[in-house]
Amino acid sequence: MKSELETAASNIVRSMHSRLQSNGIRIHEGSSSVHQIADLMHIAEDESIERIAEVGFHAGLSSFAFLGANKRATVTSFDIGFHECVPHAKQFVDEEFPGRHELVIGDSGRTLPAYREFHPDAAFDLVFVDGGHSLDEARSDIENLVRMCRKGAKIIMDDIVPEWPWGVGPTEAWEKVTASGGVREIARHFAEPSTDVFLNLLAPGPETRPVSHCWAIGVVQ
After folding, report:
1. Which of 88, 148, 93, 152 is nearest to 122 (CA)?
2. Do the beta carbons of residue 65 and residue 9 sit within 8 Å?
């Protein structure tokens, strides 16, 4: 039997998929699994969390999950803005959670430091890193977000899957940052290999092959 959070996560996926599909948008690359969305919701439920930031908005699933799980929280998303789904997902998130979501478009290597400069008092309680997949991009995103976190804030690092090409950089970046002492890893969460949540709603094909998924959770020191 699915947990309540997994049911809620499934509903988020189907709602966003329906909204994007009605606008003629099809997702052509990976998004969070239902299991991960449920886990993000569980982490965000913590009453001490009020400000959340993420790198990688894409189809808005993680933002939707955070905002739905925590009625007190706001989310600031940083996204390159390349994918056509971004403005449509942003509109849907704003309709569902008015005034609680901020989207910053541009290269996070530049927009994160700029945001910190203009918001020197920013102190996030939870951050989610799911942006560029090279070592330099992933490490830059982690380090820039950590600088805007309060001590004790939670940080979630996606794609700790070095067995896949897109997971090599994020995994190495995470290991370097945790080795430096700035972040202490407290857990790694895994999802059983499954097809991508959006692609799974489409007809089976080569792009729906099962993939493994792992994300790490840490605490800012």
Report:
1. 148
2. yes
Q: How far apart are CA 37 and CA 31, in angstroms?
A: 10
- Structural tokens at position 160: 């700790």
- Provide the residue type at 34 as one letter: V
Instruction: Indicate the SS3 state at residue 156.
Output: strand
The answer to whether 218 and 154 have CB atoms below 8 angstroms apart is yes
Is domain 4-21+31-220 annotated with CATH 3.90.220.20? no
Radius of gyration of the chain (CA): 16
Q: How far is CA 11 from CA 38, 52, 144, in A?
A: 11, 22, 33
Question: What is Dmax (Cα atoms) for the chain?
Answer: 48
pTM: 0.91
Mean pLDDT check: name the lowest of 12-21, 32-41, 71-80, 206-215.
206-215
Cα 6 to its chain centre, rounded Å, is 17
What is the enclosing helix (H) or strand (E) of 128?
A: strand 124-129
Average pLDDT over residues 74-80: 98
What's the pLDDT score for residue 100? 98
Question: Domains of the chain: which residue ranges?
Answer: 4-21+31-220
CB neighbour class for 219 (10 Å; exposed up to 12, middle 13-18, buried from 19): middle
Q: Which residues pair with 157 in a beta bridge?
A: 129, 216
Length of the chain: 221
**Residues 144, 112 contacting (CB under 8 angstroms):** yes
Tokens representing 79 are 């996204």
